[in-house]
Give the backbone structure.
Amino acid sequence: MPQLVHIDNEGITDPHVNLAIEEYALRHLDPRFTYVLFYVNEPSIILGRGQNAFDETNAAYVRERGIHVVRRLSGGGAVYHDAGNLNFSFITDAGPGRLHNFGLFTGPVTRVLQEMGVDAALEGRNDVVVAGRKVSGNAQFSTARRMFSHGTLLFDTDLSEVGRALHVDPGKLRSKGHASARSRVANIAEFAEREMDVPTFRRRLLAGLFAGGNVPVYRLTATDWTGVRRLVDERYGSWDWNVGASPPFELRRARRFAAGAVDVRLDVRKGRIAAARVFGDVLDTTGLRAMERRLEGVPYDREAIGQALAGTRVSGIPADDLVSLLDPDLTG
């Protein structure tokens, strides 16, 4: 590969910004170099390109904890990031033998891990495992000329949060998206020869990748930051990208209220309610039809649905209860 250069992300932990830096580097930085980018994110769920945001998250838990939900360019499954997870990305030419060759990019990382006493190895197509447990998942994205291969490194992640944030009721909706495959996971810190924190782990990795020599560093210019912020505004900070780009899905919610049962069927496309049918044994059929009309075309989002149903009452059932029935709790 061409000369390796480290991109300094200035310690940013906002996942919207870090993913924007990665894409900006792919599309705009000097193609004569291969870049490596390390970053740590605040608690986040990072979705694969083809995934359904609603199908991959425990939406109520995500909202309660203020966990970011951000869609990346690459495919693959949803992953949980927190301060104990170090992410890496190699940005290089999409030359022959590079795209889909995960070993080319995980190899330098597993070599450094082995130097730390961690018996890590690539298993299957794109997972790094230690003692049969996954410590890194990897994915790739390419343009016509450039590509990145990026992955997680579970170092000291709160693994209980992984299960809580990514757990979702399999009967909740019928989605056409690509569901994540769950694996047994572990933290690298369990296997390292000596205790260290994530910043020390990052420094060890950098030193290992550059064989203990000089580490060339690229620092984003003012022009670069303008481009990065534009990507945040137009893509990674956008509901239309993070949520609205979800594949179509169908959802059914039913609940019995004092006035009778209400059964809602939604067809959601591009994150918006394309069609709504509302059934029930309540006497107010006029209210059911009005609810259908108010929902159609509305983003599948708690605030938007709340605004659409404001003032609506079906057989005396308050609008807040009808919104709660749909429960579209998902934050960006």
In short: Residues 169-173 have pLDDT under 50 and may be disordered. The first helix runs from residue 15 to 28.
